[in-house]
Amino acid sequence: MKKQMIIILLLAMQVALYAQPRFDGSIFKPRQPKGVNALQILYDARNKDLEFSDEVQAALYVYENFEWKRHLLPMEKNTDGLWTASLAVTPQVAFVAVKFFQGDINQPDVFDNNEGKGYGVALADAKGNAKAGAYLGEASFQVPGISTGGLYGYYAEEPKPLAKSDLETLAANEMRLSGQQYLKFFESYMKLQELVLGDAFPAYATKTLQTYLADKNLDEDALGDLYQYTKFRLKDEQLAAAIETRIGKEFPKGTTARFVAYNNTKGSSPDRAEAIASYEDFLHRFPIAEWRKQPNKQGFIYYAVYRGLGSSYFDAKQFDKFVALYDDIDFRTGNELMRWNIMRAYMFKLVGQDTLYQVAEAILPKLIARKDDGSYLSDFDDKAMADANRMKQLDDRLFTHISLLNDLKKYKEARTYFYELSDDGKYSNAELNEINLQVLEGLDDRKQILPLLEMSARQNAMTPRMFDTLHAIYLAQHNREAAGYEDYLSSLKSNEQKAEMKAYVDQHWVNHPMPDFRLEDAGGSFVTPADWKGKIVVVDFWATWCRPCIMAFPGMQLLVDKYAKDDSVAVYMVGTMQTGDYKGKSVNFVHGEGYRFNLLHDAVNPATNEQDFVFRQLVPLFGDSSIPRKIVVKDGRVRYCSGGYSGSPSKLMDELSLAIETLKSEN
């Protein structure tokens, strides 16, 4: 498709004369335009990596107002075989660089940046004089570490450093040219001087800062920039304290004073009372209600302060104060406080359930009421993604509370919260579906049980107990006749869902030799490849310390039960990467939970003394050493491999069943 050429006016260009730059400016035409001449890019791809590309693009990097920005330019091929484009720049642009590429700029198929030396040009004004920023732009183009802004992605690897004498000349020229604007380029300039001065830099930086601070007319933003540099980069506590005092006197309620006060909170203090007092003092001095009248980019401060204060209240069991915070905070902050404190306390039994219920019941309605406040929008570029994340977060908080209510047998309240779940969240979580089954049973609401089970089956989010209940209902409705049950079950799943499962399985076929092995089972006997001859064998690598592995056990039990009478299929659970009495750990856990598995213990690697001998040999196939990891073996070769756990026992069973049946159908 023919691309539109972008025509722009450019003031002029001037290559620094003090030394020969290592970058190439010959692609820019004319080489030294005057006044308002246009600047064009003429790129000859012949004898270069992009020679045979039919779609060359240009990534344009401009140094504007002492900051790098990146734009993408389309290019056209002219009759001479050159790729061309014209540049759009503003009078504030002091340096221009370009990188040519094909494909996605973030992961280009091919690119040309002059073999790491760069294509660039420094600009001048209409009279041919260097523009403010030209020297610093040139320095930062060749030494990206001093850059401010988006020079990201220009180089594949760090360029060779410039000589200190060249850096010193660039620094001196920029200060001579732009010294009065020092606050605009302060940080980049100081990074440049740090490279030039080495060990002498701290003394220079302190003296320079003192000189700047002698100006009695510095505004709040300037003082804030100097404070942050002094405090966090130079780490001069004495000078930072002096700037802090000046900020407090001249701008006591300003944004910089707010940042300083936040920086002085004691969230990391081992004394919880001290941390709480510091957070409370901050909110007293800078109430969130005042910030909301004129919000700026300091919302992160209140997010951090309320998180720290809320967690401190919770850990100190000051639950009334914890609850009171929800009168002020937005959905994003309230969600994080509930996630970290309520969910963690529920999972690890840190607080009694009755107390936890009182706290959660007080805050959850407030969180639900703020679900549409838009507070998550700042975390995402796309509103749809922000909304989806917000719904997922609220579903997770509701899951925890419904689980707690079910434990306390508060079934009526639990059922009420079920209706607050999103449409996607109502039936997509197998564990929550089983809890809702228990709630309906507790309410003796038999009419709602079958719809719940059928909707859960449609979402393929079923547990073994749910299958048992559905099967029992089917038998009761069909005079105890099981014929037709499997067809009924299959009919609950949509064709789209079946197609998605097939697509997932098709992505995970492999063909890899199974390592030789001799693995001990729970009874002390040994299993070898000879025992698998003529069988399709599913292997689940797991460990007692792996929570996703344990969560997948119900799905593996469904698979075991499904093929229990099929002599051509075997399922083994192989414990791996465990320590201590790994045999006892595995056997006691599985038997204690009532699972009916064929257990095997991975052998100890003689080279490392780690219990991962078979698993480690398969890591090249897996690509990483994470578990759970499922493989399906046939005729001595691994034919299927997938990792992780989706959260649905029925989905896991269907996945592995489809792999088994596909392998069965082979000749």
UniProtKB/TrEMBL annotation:
Species: Sphingobacterium pedocola
Coiled coil: none
Annotated ranges, domain Thioredoxin: 508-665
Keyword field: Signal
Keyword Lipid metabolism: no
Leader peptide range in chain numbering: 1-19
Name of the protein described by the UniProt record: Thioredoxin domain-containing protein
